[in-house]
TrEMBL record:
The keyword Isomerase applies. PANTHER family: N-(5'-PHOSPHORIBOSYL)ANTHRANILATE ISOMERASE. The gene is trpF. CDD domains: PRAI. This is N-(5'-phosphoribosyl)anthranilate isomerase. GO terms for biological process: L-tryptophan biosynthetic process. Keywords: Amino-acid biosynthesis, Aromatic amino acid biosynthesis, Isomerase, Tryptophan biosynthesis. The keyword Methyltransferase does not apply. Gene3D superfamilies: Aldolase class I.
Length: 224
């Protein structure tokens, strides 16, 4: 995917307060994520997410995040929250992910993994609109604040992908230049506590992504 054809999209995940949702939109964030995975410190109920959804600015997408949720649970979230995108972090198969009639992206655990099997990934999830490379796996849980080895993402990956895991205002510039992603995803790196977003960190994160977008990419890398 040619870096010169797009700007880096930004998703802030693990929203628990309407004010944070509103600020994300004002800062120009493209999407916010509501977590429905059991055990997550950022987990919200569908009714809470539905209330926060009213704070979304125009053209900001709502993403529903799951990890091995039962189908009925996913359907209830789709009914109440009306997300524009689903994000699956568990062992869900393609048939399950696409059965809800909403576009989805699949999270891929990168911590403790070897080289990415691009062909196998695309064959396993042919209906995925994109992938999210995260730092979970190898005993680490999603949202742990850890990073992974960004060089594991092969150059020229031709499906839209997001980079997540331990991204902060201090390292997202480097991450964006190292991976040239379609988008970046942050949760703990823009928080003062789990689920409690920090306005200054949110602003600085967006500024650093935009700074990376303005960085001139050598032609040979842009065409990878």
């Amino acid at each position: 995917m040619k870096r010169t054809l797009f700007r880096t999209r930004i998703k802030f995940c693990g929203m628990t307060r309407a004010g944070d949702v509103r600020l994300a939109g004002e800062l120009g964030v493209d999407a916010v994520g509501f977590v429905f995975a059991a055990g997550s410190p950022r987990r919200v109920e569908p009714e809470e997410a539905r209330a926060m959804r009213s704070a979304l600015a125009p053209l900001v997408n709502a993403v529903a995040v799951f990890r091995d949720n039962h189908g009925e649970s996913v359907r209830e979230v789709v009914r109440q929250v009306r997300p524009s995108l689903l994000q699956f972090h568990g062992d869900e198969e393609d048939g399950f992910c696409r059965s809800f009639g909403v576009p989805y992206i699949k999270a891929v655990p990168m911590r403790g993994s070897g080289a990415l099997d691009v062909i196998g990934l695309r064959l396993a999830y042919p209906a995925a609109t994109g992938f999210l490379f995260d730092s979970h796996g190898g005993g680490a849980e999603p949202g742990s604040g850890a990073t992974f080895d960004w060089t594991l993402i092969p150059p020229g990956f031709d499906v839209p992908f997001f980079v997540a895991g331990g991204l902060t205002p201090d390292n997202v510039y480097a991450a964006a230049l190292a991976t040239l992603p379609w988008g970046v995803d942050a949760a703990s790196g823009i928080e003062s506590a789990p689920g409690i977003k920090d306005g200054d960190r949110m602003r600085r994160f967006v500024q650093e992504v935009r700074r990376a977008d303005c960085h001139e990419i050598p032609e040979e890398r842009a065409d990878d």
